[in-house]
Amino acid sequence: MTSRGLHTDVLISHGDWASAINDVDSLCQQASLAAYRACSEMELEQVEISILLSDDKNLRALNKKYRGVDKPTNVLSFPNHDWKKLSHATVIPQLLGDVVIAFETTMSEAIRDGKKLEDHLSHLVVHGVMHLLGHDHEHSVQAETMETLETTTLAELGISDPYDETEVVDTG
Known about the structure:
With 172 residues, the protein is α/β, with parallel strands linked by helices. The protein has six helices and five strands, in the order E-E-H-H-E-H-E-E-H-H-H. A five-stranded mixed beta sheet has the order 1-2-3-5-4, with helices on both faces. Strand 1 and strand 2 form a beta hairpin. Helix 2 packs across helix 5, helix 2 crosses helix 6 and helix 5 crosses helix 6. The protein is globular and about 35 Å long. The C terminus is likely disordered.
């Protein structure tokens, strides 16, 4: 899908994604575009994001290799460039980077937190894309800024605040 200069490729390497979420590709497209709109200070001519819907085994291997953490995680982002320098780039489209999401961890978190799998996946896509666009949550000020952006972006998609621990969504 291409919109506002953003092209998002969604690849599914774990079949449970497609069976668990109707039109998972469109969901990822909408969430990535919403994050791009919320965070991109400039509208770049052509940028590309790749989203891989994978599994715990793959995320564990990536987490170990790139972060030194030998366990699966829900989402990893791999920025390709400093996004602020992309406006001066000559190669088009510019690859912002890759977002990889694990099915089993995402599903178990959604069940644990009483959230719809679709909403939780949307949150992880938004979170991952925001990392590609230069946001982080290593320090409290950064975390607060990123959480506010995520919450606002998700609200525009009709998804409640993922950081509100008092809100529980019926997943039944």
